[in-house]
Design brief:
Layout (H helix, E strand, L loop, with lengths): L1 H8 L4 H9 L7 H9 L6 H15 L4 H13 L6 H10 L4 H8 L1 E2 L6 E2 L4 E3 L6 E3 H14 L18 H18 L4 H14 L4 E3 L6 E3 L7 E3 L6 E3 L15 H11 L3 H14 E3 L6 E3 L7 E3 L6 E3 L7 E2 L15 E2 L7 H4 L4 H10 L32 H14 L10 H11 L11 H8 L4
Antiparallel strand pairs: 1-2, 3-4, 5-6, 7-8, 9-10, 11-12, 13-14
Helix pairs in contact: 1-3, 1-4, 2-4, 5-7, 6-7, 9-10, 14-15
């Protein structure tokens, strides 16, 4: 009965009174009695059970039948469990023996180890169960290395943290776990949540001078002051502030800069290059530059939101979102791209993409280079004259972006096998066999948003 001895040793001061009612230990102090139990000195098994029964019935006010349930848990429990933990298990089972035994050994969904109910953690939006060790490991990794949008359950990825109400409930549940299990990371945890809330604030701005982010809380006006560098910028157009902006609209201010600012054209050229090789985070609006080898999935360096480089929709990894259907199962890394997303249309022939623009009477030329430029503005490669200042690869990328910008439907130039593939990937509906009817069928049944 090693567990019984251990439990008795943790029962507190009232134990000595109960103990003395049935044992001849007159003259012994409370400390001496506890010491005898811890060392299992001069105690028979019957004496130990008697002491435990008295404590449970007198101090914990359990009935005889409830005491029997606790005794069964004592017999089967791991040696490190305390009286309070066993009582918690018994009470949560409503003192049902079968249910209590189930709660005594619950399987962790991550490591598959078995742990008592008191050492298992659950989340509000799913049925996954985690032992304290696995929860510590996951919280540490998530808080240190991931953005708040990636703090959903590591197994089933619930809830969808793009829903603000579900996200707020989830973060509130994580808060006491972080404080209890990884207290040294609590400051990072709260700072990331604060930053995420700031990014969603309509008054959030990145300074046009020092590039620090802040939420403007002063009197709403065009001229606002950065709390970090102390310099001024325009709240509306987000440009660096000059006296010439006083009293005139942002469009008029830009016209003035175009005519009088010698640095304006140079800045416009730089902005255009950033436009070609850079991207804006759809979550926090921070703009950053992409390298030429950037992949379809982009993670913001500021808020760590992961999104599609083409259409800006959130990219998920093996989890469901509110937009997911059965077709999403097993996809792993996916986003719900519209069919005119540049990530999808870049797989088409350039000639087909150009034809789509011609069909809608849309033309473009690169703003920095005349049509007869011989080198790509992005990578400096030799180019054909008709490609508007871009090499073939970047020319196609530009075509895809223009198509997406004007919300053109590529179904007009998709091949039959491309349309069939798209249908099979996105729906289970029957479709007509007539090639000429397929484009109209797609447009009517699944219009672009």
């Amino acid at each position: 009965m090693d567990n019984t001895h251990r439990l008795l040793a943790g029962c507190g001061g009232n134990f000595a009174e109960a103990f003395s009612k049935s044992c001849t230990l007159e003259g012994k102090t409370d400390e001496e009695i506890l010491s005898m139990i811890v060392r299992k000195t001069d105690l028979t098994e019957n004496e130990t059970l008697t002491r435990l029964r008295l404590i449970l019935m007198v101090d914990k006010q359990l009935t005889e039948s409830e005491v029997k349930v606790v005794f069964k848990l004592v017999e089967a429990s791991p040696a490190e469990l305390s009286v309070d933990e066993l009582l918690t298990i018994a009470r949560n089972s409503t003192f049902d023996v079968k249910r209590a035994m189930e709660l005594l050994l619950i399987e962790c969904s991550l490591c598959n180890g078995r742990f008592p109910y008191t050492r298992i953690r659950t989340l509000n939006f799913c049925a996954c169960k985690f032992c304290d060790g696995c929860m510590v490991h996951w919280l540490t990794s998530a808080i240190r290395e991931k953005g708040v949008r990636q703090w959903a359950c590591p197994l089933c990825s619930k809830p969808d943290l793009s829903h603000s109400e579900d996200a707020a409930t989830h973060y509130q549940q994580l808060d006491p776990m972080v404080r209890q299990l990884v207290a040294d990371l609590y400051e990072i945890f709260t700072n990331k949540l604060l930053d995420n809330a700031n990014y969603e604030d309509p008054n959030f701005r990145f300074c046009a001078h020092c590039n620090q982010g802040f939420v403007y809380q002063g009197h709403l006006s065009k001229k606002i002051r950065c709390p970090f560098c102390g310099k001024y910028m325009c709240y509306s157009c987000k440009r660096q502030w000059r006296d010439q902006h006083d009293g005139i609209a942002c469009d008029a201010y830009e016209l003035w800069m175009r005519e009088h600012d010698p640095d304006y054209q140079q800045q416009r050229q730089l902005d255009s290059i950033i436009e070609e090789t850079g991207i804006q985070c759809p979550s926090c609006k921070f703009r950053f530059q992409l390298d030429n080898e950037a992949c379809a999935s982009v993670k913001c360096s500021q808020c760590e939101f992961e999104f599609c480089e083409g259409c800006g929709l959130e990219v998920v990894h093996g989890r469901a979102t509110s937009q997911c259907t059965d077709q999403c199962k097993g996809r792993g890394h996916h986003a719900h791209h519209p069919r005119n997303c540049p990530i999808l249309t870049r797989e088409y022939d350039s000639e087909d993409l150009e034809n789509l623009l011609v069909m809608h009477d849309i033309r473009f030329e690169h703003p920095l280079h005349p049509p007869d430029s011989t080198h790509c503005v992005v990578c400096n490669a030799d180019i054909a004259k008709y490609q508007g200042g871009l090499c073939r690869e970047h020319f196609k990328q530009k075509l895809c972006k223009v198509i997406f910008k004007h919300n053109l439907d590529p179904v007009d130039v998709m091949k039959h096998h491309q349309i069939v593939t798209w249908i099979n990937q996105h729906t289970n509906v029957d479709f007509p066999n007539d090639n000429d009817s397929l484009p109209k069928f797609i447009k009517d049944k699944f219009p672009l948003k």
